[in-house]
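job 3f2a | input accepted
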Amino acid sequence: VLGHGKMAALRLWGGRSGTVMAAAAGRRLGARGKHDYDLLVIGGGSGGLACSKEAAQYGRKVAVLDYVNPSPKGTRWGLGGTCVNVGCIPKKLMHHGALLGTALNDAKKYGWDIPLPVNHDWSVMAKAIQDHVKSLNWGHRVQLQDKKVEYLNLKGVFVDQHTIQGESSKGEKTLLTAENIVLATGGRPTYPSNVPGAEFCISSDDIFWLRDSPGKTLVIGASYVGLECAGFLTGFGLDTSVMVRSIPLRGFDQQMARLVTDYMTSYGTRIFWKCTPIKIEKLNNGKLQVVWKNLASNIEERESFDTVMWAAGRTPETQGLCLDKAEVRINPETRKVVVGDGEETSARHIYAIGDIAEGRPELTPPAIKAGKLLAHRLFGKSTQQMDYDNVATTVFTPLEYGCVGLTEEEAVRRHGEDKIEIYHAHYKPLEYTVAEREAAQCYIKIVCLRESDQTILGLHFIGPNAGEVVQGFALGMKCNATYSQLASTVGIHPTCAEEVNKLNITKRSGLDATVTSC
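job 3f2a | predicted structure (518 res):
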């Protein structure tokens, strides 16, 4: 942290004259001459932390400002951003917890004497996961200290292009100046302004920090966040529904998206298709009554739930940064920061990475990679840019969906249907056979160019451990793998992943693509 003398000199106790004096003091006290820091990062999520630690290794003076505004329901968390606290980490752990319940049902067929049904204790699981997340919060603070990155628990706003005003939870204000500034504030769940009673609902900012079971739950929205949460809630034995206004998993391959929701329906999740909420009322018994319109029948319907969760998109955290004072341009429709190939904004020494940046994937690994590469370019004389093509991802629904590259729709749009070849297969994981589990939605397809060696444009996999499967094939995609190379690769037997290498039936042929042998 800043030394006591320097902090005192920079504190603002109100008034314009105090601001001016503190700004001047900040510039006079700059350890690097003109500015306090070589790099100031606003946002202590995955991308911001990665960028700051990488920059500090070049011997530069670096600071991270991180401040979490509580959710509308009052949920707070520590250093590490969405991924660590209210995203990837707790989501994957709850997903795994739900899969263990399914495995217990399978175990009986494998000879395990387990009295059924089994019961799930939400509070035990939640405490274990929350304790792990808190350990990660502390670990991030230790890493920053080890890398000699200053961590400032302050909410930052621009005063000018090189000056940030940081405000503590007690209202104490501090001016900091930096030669380079990186915006990495990420996004937060969107609450609708046109649905009365929306304030009674939770979001993904809250679900992982609930001490008690949410009970009967309605998830509004079929984003990957919404479907993942609905999936593990169903897996814990909770009465769970999803409300879908238009399509599931917007931006993903829609054939695969429908297979995901088909499986969720068979898994026990109710899905209200073509429905949109009208209002939410809190009843005397504490339950929430949701009134919605069925767009297909044009009829109003209603039902009561213990918990309602919004999962209808995210909003970038740009509104409170006073970006206009730094002449940083945002897209007025998306409210994201407009960036160039090198993550630079309209102010050449100010950069934006991660979810806050226009046109970037809202995923943790690209933000981390982009942050590291940016630090290397700023301080290490590197010229390597982030490559956002063929970034793999996985939706951790009960039956996982992993993908890399183009969707079938996008491939057809870019190249035309006649120039695309799609190889596909319906398969049954070996583990499902003895357990007699349904495998109708276990499906693989690769999207290729028809010409020559058939360069692979996209790979899509639905099945167990999809993330582990697709990660390896993502390397091949980066190397411009072709179908002929894939087909000549010997698979590992018996695995689900080997079914990718064995693909040989095209959609165009119209032949049955069901795998019938081991």
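job 3f2a | The CA atoms of residues 402 and 468 lie 9 Å apart.
job 3f2a | closed
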